[in-house]
Amino acid sequence: NLQLPLATMLDLASGDMDPYALVVERRLSHMAEAYHDRAAVTAAAGEDPVIYRAYEADVPHEASQLVYRMTIIEPGRIGDEFYMTKGHHHVVDSGEFYLGTAGTGAVVMQTRSGEVRVEEMPPGRAVYVPPGWAHRSVNVGTEPFVFLAVFFGNAGHDYASIERDGFAVRVLADGDGYRVG
Ligand code: F6R
Ligand code: ZN
């Protein structure tokens, strides 16, 4: 019983996917500890804004499969820190293909030994996240930041180590732009 091929429309500008199998919606309350400005977290907690959403194709999360997912990070900040994803390591060390499709954002990558790289992902820029690099995406612009991710079905997502240790750098507002601090 071979699996059937699957076709999906990806709206690269908006991040909409049709058909999709899964929506991830993360609000501030799902990741409040990730932001460093505690007063700004408290101030925004009542509104509890949606930080990002993700749509995923109906691909099984198992070995030999390639799962693909569109993420849409809203524009915004908590204090001086831009809206971002939780970030994770893959449980099974494995690479991931990222492609920016709309807006202005970047991906922060970090090894378990603390080496850090930041790559911008304007529309059309692909970033390869090698095995062993945790990754968090950040919207540094004023429009939704949209990107495509393709990862192994058995990659698994380890959020706990990032929740515990965070990333070594933060992406912070700096005039009209950003700085990595
Ligand atoms: C999958 C991947 C992305 C993220 C998505 C949401 O391996 O890296 O599709 O899952 O951008 O971010 P997280 O998973 O960190 O909440
Ligand atoms: Zn990943």
Give a brief outline of the structure.
The protein has 181 residues and is mainly beta. Helices cover 8% and strands 44% of the residues. It has one domain: Jelly Rolls (Sandwich).
**What is the total tally of β strands?**
17
Order of helices and strands: EEEHEEEEEEEEEEEEHEE
Order of strands, main sheet, comes to 3-4-5-14-9-12
In total, how many domains does the architecture comprise? Answer: 1
Uncertain segments are none
Query: What ions, cofactors and ligands are bound?
Result: fructose -6-phosphate, zinc ion
| CATH secondary-structure class | Mainly Beta
Assign the structural class, choosing from mainly alpha, mainly beta, alpha/beta, alpha+beta, or little secondary structure: mainly beta
Number of helices: 2
- How much helix, percentage-wise, in residues? under 10%
Net shape? globular
CATH level-4 homologous superfamily: Jelly Rolls
What is the annotated CATH architecture?
Sandwich
CA radius of gyration is 16 Å
